[in-house]
Design a protein that fits this description.
heterodimer, A: mainly beta, four-stranded antiparallel β-sheet, B: about 110 residues, mainly beta, 11 strands, globular
Chain lengths: ~120, ~110
């Protein structure tokens, strides 16, 4: 059973870079497709970015200019960097695995990690 | 910019049937959008219910079903139970490795 665990600082200052890591257990990060999804307090889910190897990534157009996703096969992890953060980036951040056989949906989720942007 | 629409809230009586929908502000939802549905209770990560329009995820009770109704994707709960009270999100695959979530529907069972 694949398990995902997000990690990173819970507090980031405005204008700085938010960096999160998702550690994969029970599976190989090189064998599947992965996404980051976030949820601001009291609001809905927003898909952020997607990767299926260390070289192939796709981004939500609304975040693309500030967002970088990477995959580290040696650590079985994938990461997210969101720069120039503002209070609007305060959210619970989830990492998720895409279902095999097309990868059009998500079949495993991390528990989520809350991030607050505040000085 | 295309927006994925869901009813903000819905109410159903215990044992009743409810259909939640997932549409587009421009165009129709079809199977080529690979609609999937997720259930989320407060403080928890989403749980996958339905994928590829109508396939139930492992362990999901058969009272949950997915379909295309008219120009929207639909999630139907038949015989609603108290613990079905949750937020429900659909997500559509827009092509070119882009996914868009609907705003979610808050379902009340009372």
């Amino acid at each position: 059973q694949v398990q995902l665990q997000e990690s990173g600082p819970g507090l980031v200052k405005p204008s700085e870079t938010l960096s999160l890591t998702c550690t994969v257990s029970g599976g190989s990060v090189s064998a599947d497709y992965w996404s980051w999804i976030r949820q601001p307090p009291g609001k809905g889910l927003e898909w952020m970015c997607y990767a299926y190897n260390s070289a192939t990534t796709y981004y939500n157009p609304s975040l693309k200019s500030r967002l970088t996703m990477s995959v580290d096969t040696s650590k079985n992890q994938f990461s997210l960097n969101l720069n120039s953060v503002t209070a609007a980036d305060t959210a619970v951040y989830y990492c998720a695995k895409h279902r095999r056989g097309g990868g059009y949906s998500f079949d495993h989720w991390g528990r989520g990690t809350p991030v607050t942007v505040s000085s | 910019q295309t927006v994925v629409t869901q009813e903000p809230s819905f109410s159903v009586s215990p044992g009743g049937t409810v259909t939640l929908t997932c549409g587009l502000t421009s165009g129709s939802v079809s199977t080529t959008y690979y609609p999937s549905w997720y259930q989320q209770t407060p403080g928890q990560a989403p749980r996958t219910l339905i994928y590829n329009t109508n396939i139930r995820s492992s362990g999901v009770p058969d009272r949950f079903s997915g379909s295309i109704l008219g120009n929207k994707a639909a999630l139907t709960i038949t015989g609603a139970q108290a613990d079905d009270e949750s937020d429900y999100y659909c997500v559509l695959y827009m092509g070119s490795a882009v996914w868009v979530f609907g705003g979610g529907t808050k379902l009340t069972v009372l």
